[in-house]
Amino acid sequence: MASSPLTVRKREGRLAPETVAALNADLSARFGNRFSASDAIRRQHAHTLTWLENQPPDAVVFAETREDVVDLVAICARRDAPIVPFGIGSSLEGHVNAPHGGVSLDLSRMNAILAVNAQDLDCVIEPGVTRTRLNAYLHDSGLFFPIDPGADASLGGMASTRASGTNAVRYGTMKDLVLSLGVVTADGTFVRTGTRARKSSAGYDLTHLFVGAEGTLGIIVEIALKLAGLPEAVSAATCSFPDVRSACNATIETIQTGLPIARIELLDTLSVRAFNAYSRLSLPEAPMLLVEFHGTEASVAEQAARFGAIVAENGGGNFIWATKPEERTKLWKARHDGFYAQMALRPGARPFATDTCVPISRLADCVEETLEDIARSGLLAPIVGHVGDGNFHVSPLVDMADAKEIEAAEAFASRLAHRAIAMGGTCTGEHGVGQKKIAYMEDEHGAGALDLMRRVKAAFDPRNLFNPGKIFTV
Amino acid sequence: MASSPLTVRKREGRLAPETVAALNADLSARFGNRFSASDAIRRQHAHTLTWLENQPPDAVVFAETREDVVDLVAICARRDAPIVPFGIGSSLEGHVNAPHGGVSLDLSRMNAILAVNAQDLDCVIEPGVTRTRLNAYLHDSGLFFPIDPGADASLGGMASTRASGTNAVRYGTMKDLVLSLGVVTADGTFVRTGTRARKSSAGYDLTHLFVGAEGTLGIIVEIALKLAGLPEAVSAATCSFPDVRSACNATIETIQTGLPIARIELLDTLSVRAFNAYSRLSLPEAPMLLVEFHGTEASVAEQAARFGAIVAENGGGNFIWATKPEERTKLWKARHDGFYAQMALRPGARPFATDTCVPISRLADCVEETLEDIARSGLLAPIVGHVGDGNFHVSPLVDMADAKEIEAAEAFASRLAHRAIAMGGTCTGEHGVGQKKIAYMEDEHGAGALDLMRRVKAAFDPRNLFNPGKIFTV
């Protein structure tokens, strides 16, 4: 059964019915009513958000403790069954799908906040804690956790996809803010990947190896996170531009001059229209930047003045300032609901998720070429972007009954990914590889780097128990 | 010859004389006068800086191109000979020693600056470029590379030890500023570990796996680095405290309030005395913080005022401001020469290098307990620290003819490392593991994490060609 140590065992198809029956008997005996094999629960624990197929697991287990996870790994190892970690299911790339069957490990009940070390600006949590719950908990501490993907994702999921969001331009991504992890490995060992020291040169960086590994190397059961101090002053605004290129150029200049902007988000006209409709806003229907400044009162004022000058030089203007907290909350709530706002542009259609990120010097080129491509391909495809990082999302909205439209959207997404890679960028800035981005991995990394990744997988999980079918084909 | 894939081949002793002869014949034929087996050059290419033994390689090869490195790896693989990468030899932990013989790969001639992408705030360089040379090159670009270990180290070496220095509290360490690497693997393949995009979720983080790997997983031949904009305004100062605990407490408060200080360095009284003597300064002989603020004129003034208030609250004062660039340069030159200044306290003695780093809330405790330990052990042991990160160095100066003194220093260094680990910290914040910190790896990481590190080594370099005898025993 065990593969040769430097080969990852290739899985084909799903588990045999007799294996599923034996597995489920084991799981039921160990987990009781925290085990389910019902159709509805299995389907809820697979991909539901975009055009990707729903591929349910054979069973779902709700873990409550680290011991639950260790025991689940042992049972699945014995039955040679895949384990697919599940937080809240907000992945856009099919990470929670179970193409080879097995068990969805629902970690949402492992949601304890184990420690907040305010003096050290860090905390230790379980993986099922969501970002808004953590920030609600931190409310009176003067601290916050800045990473904010659109969904109220679990932090285990965010660590596993190396997530980011609107604050990343100032505060970094999960790769910068995960201090260390507690992980259950394929042989059932609990391992801590590092200490709470702010820096260390003590051996290989296991923390960064598990961050972004999409659950394929081990199960994250504990996370130490860096926190940031709540800024004394915050100021947010929208401003409009005659075209997307001008908005991109203003962004590029902002970053290049080292302005410590906290958030700088692009919306194309179509997205503005979607936001207005979905979130009852009345933003001017033109390409727009949505920005926020953090600092002391004096520094926020200075940043805002400098940014205003850059916007004016690039032909933009029409600033609308959100100075009151509730105005800012409304604006950012609309931004975080952007995915649903875009979907509402075409009821019944399913969105494709794209996630390209390029060096900022190529941002305007990449967005402009992409707009031309959208126009040529006849797709309805709004754009939003964390443009301070060079990252933007185009979401073609597709009638799933129309094979031609699906084909056109797939071809478009492929051209977009290869365009970003050709510009020195990546096919995925923050969503992860999951299932459909596997196709671009060799173009982005080259065969040699992919071989090193497979070696890591083979060294940690040669039997391919953990989330098979994600990141690469084996 | 080849070990089983998931075992790292254990090396014992040095290469046999006939292997060395055959190896050197191969190297001489391929590299001509860029090969040397002279005693003097071999000794220069092993450890020379601290109390650790000098363990020369069998030969030295000066590489000039990536092809040189690929060919050297092939020759060494054929002869089963270790390869020890060498930058300028400023490692403090025996990284450049060759306990099992083999070839020192001198990369100092691979020192081209391949690209400066000012618009993207990044550059691409070869590993032999030193930090001061890179900054001299960047001089007119408005950009700089902030990481500054004491020595004018090569950036390949700095990447390999996950180095930091005085600016890390604001700008991060090598783990934060290496964007991607070009690496030659044990089978001679050239691999790029990532793109120039600022963020990516495209698979395993190979970049961070090679950063800090101390040359044990592959040879770094190309580095893409993030750069920072030169601050508009800079202001530096020293201030004095009645005792080290007060200085630590002021540091802790500075960090906890989120003041974006660029540098905050601790010197104990003994270090101040050493700096005064070596660098002809007249700093007040008391525990001292040496700080620097970066930003706009207004923000630097604001930061300085806030810091001043924190210092006063902690019983410190006696500020001396270095406002002119030449005054600042003198102060920081003295800081970077600290290692030599400390050595000059006791001519003829050799320094031990220690490098503990703890969560900042434990900094004052750790430093104070360590001072008591120094007093009890009767060692001459000055302290300096990058205290904003919780990182400090104690350097016992030891008469190498006195076995008892060596023993006392080793026992002290061991107590210090375990003390930091017990406080949730690390035995090495920025120097790396090298040879003598191997002893603390299991206490710091646990057996499970060490096993994962060994698996990575086994997956990438099962024959143990790359820098054997560093990071862990196999």
Feature tags:
Vanillyl-alcohol Oxidase, Chain A, domain 3; Uridine Diphospho-n-acetylenolpyruvylglucosamine Reductase, domain 3; 3 domains; alpha+beta; globular; 5-stranded antiparallel β-sheet; 474 residues; homodimer; Uridine Diphospho-n-acetylenolpyruvylglucosamine Reductase, domain 2; 37% helix
Biggest interface and residues each: A-B, 94 and 94 residues
The CATH topology of the largest domain in chain A corresponds to: Vanillyl-alcohol Oxidase, Chain A, domain 3
Average pLDDT number of chain A:
96
Task: Kindly state the percentage of residues in helix of chain A.
Answer: 25-40%
Q: Give the class of chain A from helix and strand content and strand pairing.
A: alpha+beta
**Sheet with the most strands, sense and barrel status of chain A:** 7 strands, antiparallel
Number of helices of chain A: 16
EC number (chains A, B): 1.1.2.4
Cofactor (chains A, B): FAD
Family (chains A, B): Belongs to the FAD-binding oxidoreductase/transferase type 4 family.
GO molecular function, one term (chains A, B): D-lactate dehydrogenase (NAD+) activity
Any overview of this molecule?
The structure is a homodimer of 474-residue chains. Chain A folds into 3 domains: 17-108 and 452-460, Uridine Diphospho-n-acetylenolpyruvylglucosamine Reductase, domain 2; 113-229, Uridine Diphospho-n-acetylenolpyruvylglucosamine Reductase, domain 3; 232-434, FAD-linked oxidases, C-terminal domain (Vanillyl-alcohol Oxidase, Chain A, domain 3). Helix content of chain A is 37%, strand content 18%. The first copy, chain A, has helices spanning 17-31, 39-44, 66-79, 131-137, 155-160, 168-171, 174-177, 206-210, 244-256, 269-279, 297-313, 325-336, 338-343, 363-377, 403-422, 441-460; strands at 35-36, 59-62, 83-86, 103-106, 113-117, 122-125, 143-144, 178-184, 190-192, 219-226, 228-229, 233-240, 263-267, 288-295, 317-322, 350-351, 356-357, 383-386, 391-394, 397-398. A 7-stranded antiparallel beta sheet of chain A has the order 15-12-14-13-18-19-17. In chain A, strands 5-6-10-8-9 form a 5-stranded antiparallel beta sheet. A 4-stranded mixed beta sheet of chain A has the order 1-2-4-3. In chain A, helix 14 runs antiparallel to helix 15. Chains A, B: GO terms for molecular function: D-lactate dehydrogenase (cytochrome) activity; D-lactate dehydrogenase (NAD+) activity; FAD binding.
